[in-house]
Every structure is written in structure tokens, then in C-alpha cells.
Amino acid sequence: MIIWVNGAFGAGKTSAAREMLDLIPASTLYEPEVLGGCLCRLLPGQRLQEVTAYQELPIWRRLVVETAAALLAEVGGVLIAPMTLLRQDHRDEIFGGLAARGIEVRHVVLEPGETILRARIAARTDHPDDQPSDELARRWALDRIADYKEALSWLVRDAYLLTTAGLTPRQTALALTEAIDRGAGSCGIVQTPEPRAETVAAGVLLFDDADRVLLVDPTYKPGWEFPGGIVERGESPAAAGRREVAEELGIELTRGLELLVVDWEPPRPPAHGGLRLLFDGGRVPHADIGRLLLPGAELRDWRFVTEDEAADLLPPQRLDRLRWALRAREQGRPLNLEAGHPAQ
Questions:
Q1: Against a cut of 0.90, is the pTM above it?
Q2: Do residues 120 and 10 make contact, with C-beta atoms less than 8 angstroms apart?
Q3: Is the confidence at residue 159, as pLDDT, over 80?
Q4: Hey, is 96 helix, strand or coil?
Q5: Least crowded by CB within 10 Å, which of 20, 133, 230, 324?
Q6: Which pLDDT belongs to residue 121?
Q7: The predicted structure's pLDDT at residue 272
Q8: How confident is the model at residue 158 (pLDDT cuts 50, 70, 90)?
């Protein structure tokens, strides 16, 4: 198990996590921040200049998952990870990766209140012999408070929030440990083992009366997606699409699915790529829209969107696939794609 202690910079996460080591048997402190420091020394300066923080580096998010799995294989027990994580897509990628490796995640957030938070940051001294560095660190942490306040809208739904005003680090650790013993902070994320070879996946485009397309928001990976999933052994792609729509949304598709695109996704390590098929599932009756069901461990939301609105939700390659699928639907013929574009 991994206990992810979240909160704003200066919320007292590391102090509380260190106290928890005495309270939780066979526990180990795991600081993903150390990995960020290593990457700042390993990566070329040009690559680091392309991001404003190491959390934006995909390699950091992958290393957080792989290192956690390796640590648990080495020492077992429980990992306690004090780490600010304010972007929900980063949360999905990291927690989904941990779940895929069978690692249970408990997500907790420390909330001291903004007044206390600002006072702590103002008093913070990380480099006693380097006052300019301290001032830069304090200013940076203060600038992040707005990000934290914005993230609270999803954090309060995802994590166990502990108000820590007036609590010492020890009292905070005791309260967190007791809450976790009660099952607080559990993130029930579907386990989707990472493929070890190329795969075939089938997605289904469903439309409303305004011809907007249905997208879903997975809990286990960043970005929005089409209803669908991996084609199982011995299963046809169309059957997989119908099965996934039924499992994910509670909709039984009785009509035949029309193929829109076949897209070959090239391997981009660590992903293996494979064939991605999109089918036209037709319009969803208005009465059925109100009865859409979502499996909480897999999907958190659904939305009908226009093509332009999809550009703000879908990762680039999925967006390319959608755009060509919509053109294929207009033309009444399927398209053969490679890496999201018509094959030459």
C-alpha cells in the first residue's frame, strides 16, 4: 500500500509523514521529490527549460510509479509519500499506474488553512546559508497557493481531507493513521495491467441529438477518452466495443456498429502501440442519456462535446483519430490511418 500525503507546499506533509513512520508498522518514507532532483541533474538543460516544474516531465511521473513498485518489492510494507500533487491528470496517471501494479493507494490531504499556510511559508528556511535561495523558495511556494485552492474542487472528492489547524505534526500523524485504519482515503481504481505487446482496442462514438460526441473521463490515465477498451482474446473488435459500452455506461447497443477508422498506433516506449478501431454507435436516445451509469473505479464523468470542445479534453493522438472518424462518418466510408493520419 502507498499512502499519498497531499496538500499545498508548506502544509506540513513531510513532518507528518515522518511521524507516521512510528505509528504504522513496516512503513517506509518515499519522497518522489528526490526523483525530481535527480532528473534536474540527469536531463539536458534544454529539456528542463521546456517545463516550469519537474512534475510536468512524463519521465518523472513514470519514475514515481516504477520506483514505488521497486521499493515495495525490496522492503515490503507500506510507503508513505509526502508529495504535492495538484493536477488531476497527473493524479490519474500516477495512481492508475500504481493500481495497474496491484498497489493500493490511500490519498489524504492536509488542510491547515490559508492564514497558517502563509505564515509557515514565510518562516520557512531551507538553506540557512543562502538567503536569496530561501526567498525564491518562499515566493515560489506562495505563488502556488492559488493552484492549491483551485485543485481543492477535485481533491475534496478524491481524497480524505484533514483540517490540521492547531495540530502538531504528531497529532496530525495520529489523526491520519486512525483515519486510514478506518479505510479513509481509499482510491478504488480499476487495475488495468500495462500491455506487454501490441494490442487491438475498439472505441465507440456515441452521439446525441445535436450530433455531439460522447467522451468519458478515466480515473486511471490522463485525458478524456472514447467509450471502449482492449479487444480480448477470441473476441471481435465490434463485440468488444459493444461489451465495453455496456460495462462502462450501462447501454446495450443492439444495432450493428459501423467502422469509421482503423488507426495503427506506432510503438512509443514505454507504450507498445497497436491497432485502434473507432466505430459509429449511433445516437443515444434522450431517455437513455439520463440513465447513463459510470463504474466509479474506472470512469468519473461523461460529457457530450462538439469537435472544437473535444480539442480541450483529448490528448493529441486521440483528437486526430476523432477528427478523421468524424470525416469518415460524413463521407460514409471508413478510413485507414497511421499514427492518427491517413496512410499514404
A1: no
A2: yes
A3: yes
A4: helix
A5: 133
A6: 86
A7: 84
A8: very high
Contact 245, 206 (CB under 8 A): yes
* Amino acid found at 45: G
- Here the cell at position 251 is 447501454
Alpha carbons 45 and 99: distance in angstroms, whole number: 33
Q: What is the pLDDT of residues 184-223, one digit of tens each?
A: 999 988 877 777 789 999 999 999 999 999 999 999 999 9
DSSP β-ladder status, 213-218 and 258-265: unpaired
Q: Which residues contact 250 (CB under 8 A, 6 or more apart)?
A: 291, 292, 293
Q: Determine the Cα–Cα distance for residues 38 and 15; give it in Å rounded to an integer.
A: 22
Q: Can you tell me the distance from the alpha carbon of 260 to that of 165, in angstroms, rounded to the nearest whole number?
A: 56
Q: Length of the chain in residues, anyone?
A: 344
Fold of 2-181: Rossmann fold (3.40.50)
118-123 contact pairs (CB < 8 A, 24+):
118/142, 118/145, 120/10, 120/11, 120/12, 121/9, 121/10
What is the three-class DSSP state of 28?
strand
pLDDT of 44-84, one tens digit each? Answer: 999 999 999 999 999 999 999 999 999 999 999 999 999 99
Backbone angles phi, psi at 224, to 5 degrees: -85, 170
What is the helix (H) or strand (E) element at residue 230, kind and residue range?
Answer: strand 228-230
Q: CATH class for domain 199-342?
A: alpha beta
Alpha helices in 159-251 (DSSP H): 169-181, 237-249
Nearest alpha-carbon partner for 30 in 41, 42, 45, 20: 20
Domain map (residue ranges) of the chain: 2-181, 199-342
